[in-house]
Automatic annotation (TrEMBL):
Species of provenance: Aspergillus pseudoustus
Lineage: Eukaryota, Fungi, Dikarya, Ascomycota, Pezizomycotina
Protein name: ER-bound oxygenase mpaB/mpaB'/Rubber oxygenase catalytic domain-containing protein
Transmembrane segments: 12-31
Keywords assigned by UniProt, alphabetized: Membrane, Transmembrane, Transmembrane helix
Length: 421
């Protein structure tokens, strides 16, 4: 007869393991869905219509989604949206003629774009950092818009792809799909961002046949923008030499030669046929497709049934919350083989990650002196070298307008007449 509880548990170890595992699975199930329940709580059972969702509520929901629920999906969606921009011939031609679409400049341009997107996606609409990031984007686009080299339709497509890829990646690769409440928050964010980037929605309005030209709520807007984006790609995307150049610069040149074919196939597998052909990417082989499907399925199962939800203190921060105290500039975490804006700490130069980067032929912070700006970035001057320090007066005026616009509470309130500005 066992004399202690430990002896009893050990004597019946199969039952003990099974009971412990079952209890853990029940705990995961109970905790896994608490966040989604909290997000939906104000709008369930008709308590409030989605049209009453405020800008601040939408920001809080988006922050939870990209920092806690689906950080991997949101990061991948940003990359895919930037890649798909090169599948539209008017955009890839612009990238080619600006002189930024070459191996020397492409790495910095990609990181600068990523930073501006992260800053705008991670900060409240009425914050100084959100306003500065959007104002900087507006300034960098302005001269091309005046020359009609970037059209309103191009920018609307870029905005729409940012939303469409979030929906696509989450639906395809995550342990659960997005709810209508979460899609509504994404719709509000992208409508606000489009307004702040001065993107007209007239084309989107004309696509809403039989409707009165307004949107009921952020969910309705998200659906219309996503559908318009897909339809536009089917009409506009086609393979061109500049599309191929875009992929060779931004994909091929950023990868070691021995993994390049596999990555190209993986990217091709994440795109529909229209955009894959336009970008000149290959479909994944049968073996690679099976492997990717198994990995994706296993990840979904593990997250849904065996992984506890990510706690707030382990949230994935898109950008640093405070500037470097020495330089007063913001540093950035590595997103490739080039260490743009990374602080040259001993860990960043000699840690395991840095050694792996060296193995693949990448650079570490401090390489070639200040070549990669280890001091950090300034949102007022970030961008191509010829534009550094320019446009400050225009940006300051834009910042004031954007921040004033950010005080709006319910973009789709029934009391607000006319959704189009």
């Amino acid at each position: 007869m066992p004399h202690t509880l430990i002896d009893a548990l050990w004597a019946n170890w199969p039952l003990t393991i099974a009971t412990t595992l079952a209890g853990y699975i029940v705990l995961v199930r109970a905790l896994r869905y608490r966040r989604i329940a909290a997000i939906e709580a104000p709008f369930v059972d008709g308590q409030r219509p989605l049209s009453s969702m405020t800008v601040h509520e939408a920001y809080a929901i988006m922050a939870q989604l990209q920092e806690l629920e689906f950080p991997r999906a949101f990061a991948k969606a940003r990359r895919m949206a930037l890649l798909k921009a090169g599948g539209i011939p008017t955009m890839s031609k612009l990238f080619a003629v600006t002189g930024q679409n070459n191996r020397r400049n492409a790495g910095k341009r990609a990181v600068d774009t990523e930073i501006l997107l992260r800053e705008s996606q991670s900060q409240p609409r009425d914050s100084a950092r959100y306003a500065a990031a959007v104002a900087r984007m507006n300034y960098l686009h302005a001269r091309y818009r005046r020359a009609n080299k970037i059209t309103d339709v191009d920018l609307l497509h870029t905005l729409g792809d940012g939303l469409a890829e979030i929906l696509n990646v989450v639906e395809r690769e995550e342990w659960r799909g997005l709810t209508d409440v979460e899609k509504c928050a994404l719709g509000i964010f992208h409508k606000n961002l489009g307004e702040d980037m001065l993107i007209p929605f007239d084309t989107l309005k004309s696509s809403a046949e039989g409707e009165d030209g307004t949107w009921r709520d952020g969910l309705h807007f998200a659906g219309k923008l996503t559908q318009w984006t897909v339809d536009y790609e089917e009409k506009a995307a086609r393979p061109t030499a500049t599309n191929d150049q875009y992929v060779r610069v931004y994909v091929d040149s950023a990868l070691p030669w021995f993994i390049r074919p596999v990555v190209r196939q993986m990217l091709g597998g994440d795109l529909d046929d229209c955009m894959r052909i336009s970008l000149g990417l290959e479909s994944p082989s049968l073996v690679l497709s099976i492997i990717l499907r198994l990995i994706r399925g296993a990840r979904k199962f593990l997250l849904r049934h065996l992984a506890l939800p990510r706690p707030a203190f382990l949230g994935v921060r898109l950008v640093h919350s405070a500037p470097n105290p020495k330089t007063k500039l913001y540093n950035f975490s590595r997103k490739g083989l080039q260490p743009w804006y990374m602080q040259a700490t001993p860990w960043a130069k000699w840690g395991p990650g840095a050694m792996l980067v060296r193995l693949f032929g990448g650079k570490v912070p401090g390489s070639r002196g200040d070549r990669y700006f280890p001091q950090g970035y300034d949102l007022m001057t970030i961008g191509p070298e010829p534009q550094k320090g320019k446009g400050l007066e225009d940006m300051q005026s834009d910042i004031e307008i954007i921040r004033a616009r950010g005080v709006a509470t319910c973009p789709f309130s029934a009391a607000k007449e006319g959704a189009f500005n």
